[in-house]
Amino acid sequence: MANNCLAHIVDIFSLAITDKQILSTSGASSIKVHSTTDADFPLVQSIDGAHTIGCHHIVTNGNGSRAITAGFDGKIKAWSCQDGHWIADKKVTGRYCPLFDNKGARLIRIADLTSADAWAIALSEDGQYLAGVTQEGRINVWDLAADGTRIRDHETKGSFGTCIDLVRSQILAAK
Question: Within 77-128, where are the H helices?
Fold first, then answer.
């Protein structure tokens, strides 16, 4: 990324890598996507307005099809990659989802991570589980395949959680 020293107008806070791209976030509102298939690492996409006041964490799953960001605005957002192009994943990020039961009645389900409390985040290899640690040190795990349902809530000794990771077996989370 040396040839793209002006990729962000302010400091870069987080990087996530896929097999063909590097995603970067900063105190600015955009996510920058650079190609790793060219030696110059050209900018191939800028997701402007991703987080209103910048983003401090970004993570990707193992095959590079999903990214999750945590912004200074307190929101967590999901992104999907289709043919090398990233778009907001509305099924995970938080919108009303119309569903129909076998009698045709309309049901409403909310898949909402936008108000999830997390400073640092980690995404499982398969992209199903999101772990987050709060500024108060609480660890939460959400199942993204179950509409972002929080499945774990663990209180720690109360120290600020600056980082978190998931073990590949997805049994443990550590901060």
Answer: 90-93
Q: In whole angstroms, what is the distance from residue 76 CA to residue 61 CA?
A: 15
- The per-residue DSSP string of 143-175 comes to EGGGTTEEEEEE--SS------EE-TTSS-EE-
C-beta atoms surrounding 17 within 10 Å = 12
**DSSP β-bridge partners for residue 81:** 86
Among 64, 113, 62, which residue's Cα sits nearest to residue 86? 64
Token representation of residue 165: 């990771």
The more confidently predicted of residues 77 and 149 is 77
What per-residue confidence (pLDDT) applies to 115?
A: 57
Structure tokens at 144: 């993204």
Residue 91: phi and psi, rounded to 5, are -65, -25
In this predicted model, what pLDDT tens digit does every residue of 110-140 receive, in sequence order?
345 655 678 899 999 999 899 998 888 888 8
The reported pLDDT for the residue numbered 172 is: 58
CA separation, residue 162 to residues 9, 110, 166, 168 (Å)? 24, 28, 14, 20
Q: What's the pLDDT at 103?
A: 55
161, 119 Cβ separation under 8 angstroms: yes
